[in-house]
Fold this sequence. Notes:
By secondary structure, this protein is an alpha+beta fold. Helices cover 47% and strands 18% of the residues. The chain is built from 11 helices and 11 strands. The protein has helices spanning 2-20, 22-37, 50-55, 61-82, 88-132, 183-200, 207-223, 285-288, 310-313, 325-331, 337-351, and strands at residues 139-140, 143-150, 161-167, 171-179, 238-246, 251-257, 263-266, 269-272, 295-298, 304-308, 360-367. A hairpin with a 2-residue loop joins strand 7 (263-266) and strand 8.
Amino acid sequence: MHSQRLLHSLHVTRRHSKALVTMPFALIAAVTVVDVSAPPDVHLGPFLVAAPAVTSSFAGPRMTAFVGAVAVLAQSVVAIARTSINDLNHTYQIIALCLISAFVTLFAHLRERHEQEMTQLRSVAETAQHVLMQPLPGRVGPLRIASVYLAAEAEAQLGGDLYALARTADGTRVIVGDARGKGLDAIGEAAGVLGAFRALAHKEARLPDLVGHLEDGVTVDRNCTIKGADDYSAEAFVTAAVLDIPDAGCELRLVSCGHPPPLLLRAGEVLSLEVREPAPPLGLAQLLAPAFTAETFAFGTGDVLLLYTDGVIESRDRSGRFYPLVERVASRRGDGAESLLEYVRADLLRHAGGCLGDDAAMVAIERLPDAA
Length: 372
């Protein structure tokens, strides 16, 4: 999918470049005609420099060099038509035009190479994003799943927000989290937690034991970091909500590690699943030595659960107001996980003016009837 988007972008860019390439030739033709008919003391030849210069901003080095050659030819025609090709004034104009054309051709070559490198980097980033944040299935057991990841910057593909899902013998386990900070360090923390969750979620029978192993993994990664290599690593932590949703029954179990509480939508009401005994974020538990506790909440047929990262509720509008997630979710119309996420995504972007201050991830889970 990401390669198709890149190819589409390249095709659009090429079409625009073909349309723009007519401009420098039109400029050359106009300057040539006017210069030939101008009075003897008026010289418009220097304006021909604009043709290869403009071309270098959107076309490759070959087209830039070709436009430069056409401009030199046009200047030669003007020289012959007005005086002589050996006229000193026209000779200097031709030499200057040749030098500037060569310079902007080099510039076009460097720009094209940089664009190719950026295209390759975007492709690698999107591939890494798909490997790290594997798309969640739309249907798992009695659950319907929808997810969305919103990058804070348009060009960014990776961040510290994370979500993953794993099937067990009798249910589904889900994690939604947010690694401290941004950049490669946050990505590394997120990748470590996701890898540990995917490896252990199938094996650990008790949810608190699973969270304990995730905590150990973050702590070990921090302790293995070379001392003094990065101050960030010494303070690394990940907020997370880890859930166990059995296929049978009408409940879920939740361990919250410093993460915003999930929202439960039931019969038009919005309930915040606040745990009585929250745990510290992963990576900080050893400082407090807590006992991870899983708390049980009702989660029946037709209920929809919304998990999110703090990038959602900390998004501000132009006046500085935070996004009122509970209020907006309570006022929405429509049913189901997908419609909920589509609504919140569009409403959040409107609130933030299309530019989020931080990455945001959301997962919506709907329990379907047994026969669905």
